[in-house]
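Progress against Task 2.4 (sequence-to-structure conversion) is shown through the following example record, which the project officer requested during the mid-term review.
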Amino acid sequence: MTVPRGPAPQAGPEPPADGPGTAPGSDPAELLGRLGGSWTWLLGSAVATLVPGIIVLAWPNGTLHVLAVLIGLYLLVTGGFRFVAVFGQEHGRRLPGLLLAVLYVLAGVLCLRNPLQTIAALSLIVGIVWLVTGMLTTYAALAAEALPHRGVVFCAGVLAAVAGIVVLALPAESAVALTRLLGLWLVLLGLVELAVALALRAALRRARTERRTSTPTAA
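Structure tokens generated for the chain above:
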């Protein structure tokens, strides 16, 4: 789950913070921050979670090799989305997001490095990733009072934690059972991320509307 930036969304162009002789927006960190804090980036993260979930649910008889490759690609892509989203957060809240991005990438590499691993190993990797993600997301929702749509983020964190606990406590005995379990949770998590992205878009539109109405018209 990609947590949006803490402060309320700002509408309109921000004043350039670059020094003389520097083109506005030329700082890579600033560009990544704008991208990671946008609702379209959150939407892309939701799609990256939904698509593998739909694929594994529609193809439950796939081999364990195919399942491991799909999960590995999902973890790598999600790790990339989370890394960029880190730059859209305040400096004091970037460390948990960065740790999650690294965790996702490492887990994805483990799945792709040995796709013929056992069902128990694949369940362990995914379960730990989701459990840690859920705990950190829930903590972020409780600790950041200025976080927009805290309720949705909190529900997403709880859902991810429950998904991790279920996968760890009830390991599937076959590739088909594991596929259906992981596919179901991926679809649920993707739908929650989609709700967060749409909520952020609505908040940005409200902010733009309020800014237009509060700006005095020139004589």
